[in-house]
Structure formats: structure tokens, C-alpha cells
Task: inverse folding
């Protein structure tokens, strides 16, 4: 397992561990073959991965260019057990984890490629990379400007509090992942630039904030991936929530993770896997619920025996596993993929929870799917599964004002419109309220939509402007494009 103090970027530990690991192919992993330790593979090792040798030199160089701007990290389990190398580059897990040229705008790609080809000074290359990253909306939906709490004592670092009932916590020890998703909306946490990071270095700030906010019922521990932390670190955050009466109002603890895809050994054979499960069991036995918010983008991700074993062991603690993912071009933009994924998840005891719209950050232009198509995918998929899988909500945009669901496309009084509603809102009174946007077949996000029926503004705009206090939020200016 990773070091307790490991942070994002390519650490010396990462490089040493990966060099020691080697990159030879392995047989499919089974519960009986689970002893391998986690060893990350980073952009430093792209030339050493034998599976990439079948690619052209231009393709391998393109990976280096893209991975200099957007983070890349993988491991042996992902490469040997999840990717079908005979189906590269179309393989969905390969698309999820490996850099592709189209993930950068052509001009940005050419700029970095030219600098690298002529061996420009590192200062010049880094300056160009920084400018490109700033253009990629590194903190969408006002995460830094609007969501980080301010108290009389000052800024509460490492927390976000957007919705009344739920606080997000970013422990500094969880600000990396076992592998990085190439579409991740939190990519800026992983590029090694401290100005982009949201992280808490201690537990006291979290506990003090929760104790003083009795309206909060849910804590979401996120990252990065909290499951890269050692169990003894997780205990420091969770034990007081169980043992201290100040936290009786905290009823639900959610843990966002991709570990069931990228490193299921975390729950099976890592040195402190059993300790982790005992910790979760202690929390659920106390009467609080634990929800593992699992990110699955394709049914291929949970098809191995060890993933099934990890799921079983987690469920045995009393935790509930809920699944969520965005619709992504090149990966899952087909209703058949989603329907199969939901059916198989239900069979494993996982509850389908959200289908998201790809967020407007990072490699958005490569992965985005028009809202009309995302809704069609959801509609066709959900009507082909049983009621047990129809727990899934969406398509949902996690935008500045809140989570906005696309309910469908209808014709009203001769006008074709999107029917929308809030699943969550900065103002709880917005939740559940339907509203309408003029149909736009090319729209991929809320700010591409205009109010229907000749209205000048959406109903929430004036109140949102008051909440933001005039802050400049790149993601949100209705009908900005």
C-alpha cells in the first residue's frame, strides 16, 4: 500500500517502487493470487511499458506530451487484468487510464510538442504547461471560490460545503489514486502544483467544523482517493465520529473511491485490509451508515475474481456500495454498456446511483457527449433493466448552482425544450423544481442552454448572483457560448 504521507505527483517512492516492480504481463488475478504489493506506474515509465511497444513512435510521443499536462498514473493490476491489449486503442479501460492525443486541443498539443522536440529549457516548457492547465478550468463549479467554508477563525482548508446536509473532506494523505482517470474532474489535485490543491493536513479542522454545524448529516470523504490511506490514518478521522457525542448528527459517512476498479487488493490482501474492514464494521455497528461511492465507468472494471471478493468483503461490513459515473465518448456512450453495467452491479449487490454528464474541465472536449445524446443513452438503458437497477438518477450536471438533472426532451406549445430539475441546490428550496431550456442539440453543459419560452433568465439566476457575490466562475454564465 502507498505511504501514509504520499501526496500527488510522481514521488521518489513511486519511481523506486515501479522500477522494482517491472512491467511484464501477468496472468489474470484471482483471489488465490493476491499477494502483489501496489507499485505505481507514472509518466516517467512510458518508455518501459512493453505493451506500448506495438504503438507507433508518434503515438508514444503523443502520450508523453499529453501526460506532461494532464496526470498519468497506473499500476500492474490495471494493465495486466483490465486492459485488453489486443483491442487498443479502443479498449475502454485503456481510454480511461492512458493519455490520448485528442485530450488536448490541437494548438495546445502542438505548442508543448514543439517545445519538447527542440529540447526547450524546463522553465519554458513548464510555463507553457501552466498556461494550458489554467485554460482547462481546473476547479469547475466554483469549488475554490464558493464551496470552501469561511468561519470567524478563517478559511477551513480541505473542506467543501456546497449543500446544506453534506460536507466534503479532502484529507491530505488521500490526494492521489491507485490510477488516474483521464477524464477526472479533479485532475488538478494530481499535477503537483500546490496552488491547485484542496487538502486538509489534520483532523481537528474537520471535527471542529462538523461539531458546529448540526444541520450536516452526511460526511463525504473524497480526494484523490481516500482508500490510498493506511487504515490507521482513516481511523483518526472516523473514530471520533463514532465515539464522541458531539457528532450524533452525522448519520451517514460516504467514501468516494475507485479502488474497487484500480486496486481491489486494498480490501482483500493489502497488509491492513482486514483492519480497514474492521474499522468500517465498527462504524456501521454504531448505527451510522457507511456508503462506498464506487466509480465504475464500464462493466469490464469489476469483472475480475478479486474485484468480486473485494465487493463481498465490503458488503459483509454492513457498508452499502453505490455506483456512479459520467457518460463518456470513447468509453461508454452506448445504452447497452450502461444496461449491462447496472444489471451486473445489482447482481453483485451494488446499487446504481448516478449517471453524470462529463464535467467542463480537463479533457472535456475529448470525452463530452451532447446532453440530448446522454439523455437518450440513459432513457434507453434504464427502460431495459428491472426496477432494482432503476435507482440510478440522471443524467446529472454537477454545476455551480447545484446538481441539475435532464428529465427529457419534450415539445411544449410548439417549442422543443429540455425539461430540467434540481436534484441538489445551493438553495435547498430549488430542489425538485422543474424548469425548461430551449433545445440545443450541441449543448454539453448548463451554460450552453438558454431559457425556453422567451424567458430572459432561469429562475435561480438572480439568487445565484447574490450568492456568488460577483465572483468570476469560469463554468457558469448562462448562455455564455
Result:
Amino acid at each position: 500500500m502507498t505511504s501514509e504521507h504520499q501526496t500527488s505527483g510522481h514521488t521518489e517512492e513511486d519511481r523506486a517502487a515501479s522500477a522494482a516492480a517491472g512491467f511484464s504481463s501477468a496472468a489474470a488475478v484471482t483471489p488465490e493470487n493476491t499477494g502483489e504489493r501496489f507499485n505505481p506506474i507514472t509518466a516517467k515509465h512510458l518508455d518501459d511499458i512493453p505493451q506500448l511497444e506495438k504503438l507507433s513512435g508518434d503515438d508514444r510521443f503523443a502520450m508523453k506530451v499529453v501526460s506532461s499536462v494532464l496526470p498519468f498514473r497506473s499500476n500492474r493490476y490495471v494493465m495486466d487484468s483490465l486492459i485488453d491489449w489486443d483491442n487498443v486503442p479502443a479498449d475502454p479501460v485503456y481510454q480511461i487510464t492512458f493519455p490520448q492525443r485528442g485530450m488536448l486541443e490541437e494548438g495546445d498539443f502542438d505548442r508543448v510538442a514543439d517545445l519538447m522536440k527542440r529540447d526547450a529549457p524546463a522553465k519554458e516548457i513548464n510555463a507553457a504547461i501552466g498556461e494550458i492547465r489554467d485554460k482547462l478550468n481546473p476547479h469547475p463549479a466554483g469549488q475554490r471560490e464558493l464551496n470552501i467554508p469561511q468561519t470567524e477563525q478563517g478559511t477551513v482548508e480541505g473542506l467543501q460545503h456546497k449543500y446544506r446536509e453534506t460536507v466534503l473532506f479532502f484529507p491530505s494523505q488521500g490526494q492521489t489514486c491507485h490510477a488516474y482517470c483521464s477524464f477526472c474532474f479533479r485532475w488538478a489535485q494530481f499535477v503537483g502544483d500546490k496552488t491547485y490543491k484542496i487538502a486538509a493536513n489534520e483532523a481537528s479542522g474537520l471535527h471542529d467544523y462538523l461539531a458546529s454545524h448540526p444541520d450536516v448529516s452526511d460526511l463525504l470523504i473524497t480526494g484523490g482517493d481516500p482508500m490510498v490511506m493506511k487504515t490507521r490514518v482513516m481511523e483518526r478521522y472516523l473514530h471520533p465520529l463514532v465515539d464522541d457525542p458531539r457528532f450524533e448528527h452525522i448519520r451517514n459517512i460516504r467514501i468516494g473511491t475507485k479502488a474497487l476498479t484500480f486496486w481491489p487488493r486494498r480490501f482483500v490482501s493489502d497488509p491492513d485490509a482486514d483492519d480497514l474492514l474492521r474499522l468500517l464494521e465498527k462504524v456501521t455497528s454504531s448505527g451510522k451508515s457507511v456508503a462506498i461511492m464506487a466509480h465504475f465507468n464500464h462493466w469490464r472494471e469489476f469483472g475480475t475474481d478479486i474485484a468480486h471478493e473485494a465487493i463481498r468483503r465490503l458488503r459483509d461490513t454492513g457498508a452499502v456500495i453505490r455506483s456512479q459515473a459520467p457518460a463518456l465518448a470513447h468509453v461508454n456512450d452506448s445504452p447497452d454498456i450502461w444496461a449491462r453495467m447496472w444489471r451486473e452491479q445489482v447482481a453483485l449487490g451494488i446499487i446504481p446511483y448516478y449517471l453524470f454528464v462529463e464535467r467542463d474541465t480537463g479533457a472535456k472536449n475529448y470525452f463530452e457527449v451532447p446532453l440530448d445524446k446522454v439523455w437518450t443513452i440513459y432513457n434507453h438503458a434504464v427502460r431495459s433493466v428491472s426496477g432494482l437497477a432503476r435507482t440510478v438518477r440522471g443524467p446529472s450536471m454537477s454545476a455551480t448552482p447545484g446538481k441539475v438533472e435532464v428529465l427529457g426532451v419534450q415539445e411544449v406549445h410548439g417549442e422543443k425544450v429540455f425539461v430540467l430539475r434540481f436534484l441538489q441546490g445551493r438553495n435547498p428550496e430549488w430542489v425538485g423544481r422543474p424548469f425548461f431550456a430551449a433545445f440545443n442539440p450541441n449543448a454539453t453543459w448548463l451554460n450552453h442552454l438558454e431559457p425556453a419560452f422567451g424567458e430572459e433568465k432561469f429562475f435561480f439566476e438572480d439568487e445565484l448572483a447574490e450568492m456568488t457575490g460577483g465572483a468570476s466562475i469560469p463554468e457558469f454564465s448562462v448562455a455564455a457560448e
Residues 178 and 263 are 6 Å apart (CA to CA). DSSP finds 16 helices and 15 strands in the chain.
